[in-house]
Write a structure and sequence with these properties.
single chain, alpha+beta, 20 helices, 12 strands
Length: 505
């Protein structure tokens, strides 16, 4: 409270002062906000690191939404993505014993000391099953995770009630969803259900893969599942970026800083305009061919020259091809659109750390703890929303906002429509114009101040924002309504509720 309270109060005070007495220019207003960010971001982020638990969890979620934050906050919040220290393997194995009643050595022939990843409520280790020899991933929850969550959420909710009451509806929805993450038997069921849904749709196992939970080895605090090969998407993208940076003679951090500055200057492109998936595949094949020819010549040189004359061996070349962004994003958009609009069961937090670049070109989908299940009514409402956004139907969008509890001072349909475009579909230049994110939101707030956010489809919005963040990391911007609008119309027709039915009062 001593850190976050004054920070929120300072932001609110500047907001009100600028509203009552406008700065001399937009540049002056922006400079004041930038100074405020520079002053408050470091201590608030340090506080989140120190508190750990759900504070870090929310910070990590915000790090995935960096496209809607200022550059100062964006760069600072990224530090939280690696801020969770791993617990010793001995502590993890103790939990395994408590959950199963068996000696971990009787279950696992090997159990890696270093985790594959650590999060706010648990960590994942690679292991080998003693009974079958299968390589698996073992996800184990920290003993105090549930208790800390309850305490943290009570504090966060009290703080929100004092300083941002209009956001309580969203916070409560996120809290309900996060509570489900503490029962790993539910996640095992989610993995099986999502896999079955995607197989029925013909999307798995051809384009994507979901790890199979190991029967009989999932408890409330332990989940054992099939190990999918390949690096995380975020790691694969950064590894390729590092190659480019090295060729340009700069560090990865310098390269990323330049790219962020370019993005800040030009804004997000409305949609992808780069090479097609086929073109990227052909380029990757060309790189493999070049490497193959080079390495064949190197072997010949070693045999005919280097070995007989005692000269150094020729270097082999293994050029990493670029991630096939068009193919990856097309698969991810079709998969998540189907999950949201057809199945009503979707991963609500699909950040780049939850996708794997598998060696055979497929995308691995992991971590289904944050899985949202929609009612039929909620699913059809999502379909109507995306159909309306694709059609540009402002009246229907505003009607859905009203149903969800959205309240603003003037209930301006144009403002509501732009907010929904921003929250559910795009933050490209075609929406923002020459404004940055903060200026765009400020202009909407000035035109029609928000009094209460809608509570319907909060996690569908998070799904959209997270996928757009992944798309930007691949330099492949997407417009969700363009991907999902026609699917939404098809869903409504198949279920006997075509779009036209929803146009009445």
């Amino acid at each position: 409270y001593l850190t976050a309270g004054p920070a929120v109060a300072h932001y609110r005070w500047v907001e009100q002062r600028q509203r009552l007495r406008a700065p001399a220019s937009e540049a002056a207003a922006a400079a004041e906000w930038e100074a405020l960010d520079a002053y408050w971001a470091p201590p608030v982020i340090d506080m989140l690191k120190e508190l750990k638990g759900m504070y870090t969890k929310y910070g990590q979620m915000a790090a995935g939404l960096t496209s809607v934050a200022s550059k100062t906050w964006s760069e600072g919040l990224r530090e939280l993505e690696d801020a969770v220290p791993a617990r010793p393997a001995a502590d993890v194995l103790r939990t395994v014993h408590e959950e199963t009643g068996d000696d971990p050595k009787a279950l696992f022939a090997e159990f890696a000391d270093q985790p594959l990843g650590a999060a706010s409520i648990g960590q994942v280790h690679a292991a080998t099953l003693r009974a079958t020899g299968e390589r698996v991933a073992v996800k184990v929850q920290y003993p105090d995770a549930a208790r800390r969550f309850a305490l943290d959420m009570r504090t966060i909710r009290t703080f929100c009630a004092w300083f941002a009451p209009e956001q309580l509806i969203i916070l409560d929805e996120l809290t309900r969803q996060l509570e489900a993450e503490f029962d790993y038997t539910q996640e095992a069921g989610n993995l099986a259900l999502v896999d079955a849904n995607l197989r029925r749709a013909g999307l798995a196992p051809g384009e994507v893969a979901v790890p199979r939970p190991i029967e009989g080895l999932s408890t409330r605090r332990m989940l054992v599942m099939e190990m999918l090969p390949g690096p995380k998407l975020v790691d694969g993208v950064r590894a390729y970026a590092k190659q480019i940076a090295e060729r340009e003679g700069v560090s990865l951090e310098q390269f990323e800083a330049v790219k962020r500055a370019e993005l800040d200057e030009r804004g997000v492109a409305p949609r992808y305009e780069g090479p097609s998936a086929r073109s990227v595949s052909l380029f990757a094949a060309w790189l493999r061919l070049k490497d193959g020819l080079h390495n064949t010549c190197s072997v010949a040189y070693d045999l005919l020259v280097a070995r007989p004359l005692g000269k150094p061996r020729a270097r082999r070349r293994h050029t990493a091809p670029p991630p096939n962004a068009p193919r990856i994003m097309d698969a991810l958009m079709r998969v998540h659109g189907h999950q949201l609009l057809v199945d009503g069961v979707f991963q609500a937090d699909p950040h780049a750390g939850n996708f794997l670049l598998m060696p055979d070109g497929r995308v691995g989908l992991i971590d289904y703890g944050a899985t949202k299940r929609l009612t039929r009514g909620e699913r059809l409402s999502a379909a109507v929303l995306y159909a309306a956004l694709a059609r540009g139907d402002r009246d229907t969008v505003l009607r859905l906002c009203r149903i969800g509890g959205y309240k603003s001072r003037h209930m301006d349909p144009e403002v509501a429509f732009k907010l929904c475009q921003f929250g559910f579909s795009t933050y490209g230049r075609d929406l923002l114009g020459d404004k940055n994110i903060q200026q765009f939101i400020d202009s909407l707030h000035a035109a029609d101040p928000l009094e209460q956010a809608a509570d319907n489809l909060v996690l569908a919005s998070l799904l959209s924002v997270r996928l757009r963040a992944v798309a930007l990391s691949l330099n492949h911007p997407v417009v969700c309504a363009e991907y999902w609008g026609s699917l939404a119309e098809d869903v409504l027709r198949r279920e006997g509720m075509p779009y036209e039915v929803w146009l009445g009062d």
